[in-house]
Amino acid sequence: MPAAGVGRRALVDRIVAVAQRLRQDDVVMSVLHSAPKLAMVYIAERLGTSQQILLDAVAGEIKLAQEEGSVRDGDPRQLAAMCLLITQSTIQSGQIVAPILDADALADELAHCLNGYLKP
């Protein structure tokens, strides 16, 4: 998913859009549901290649947003790691709160969380 500009709003919008796509991806959701042991390796034990790529991309965007002034100070990689944890949790567990938060509400709340975490 290409970046749509620099700054916290563009970064959060991009993260939320990726999360929505992953929640709708048949392969990703199939692994979470039918191969939980495999999924747990990448949830609780180690970062996979895709996660490393996402961390690097988000850290780079966070650094640019810090320079622009819309993201708080802090180590960009650490902030990116926390964004990954928040977003992964939303992807993994969204279905258990579906009666409370439909897909649109879940996306809105994820955006609210990430904006609050990253704002100066």
Automatic annotation (TrEMBL):
Q: Which InterPro entries match?
A: Tet_transcr_reg_TetR-rel_C_sf
Q: Which domain of life is it from?
A: Bacteria
Which protein are we looking at? TetR family transcriptional regulator
Taxonomic source organism = Mycolicibacterium pulveris (Mycobacterium pulveris)
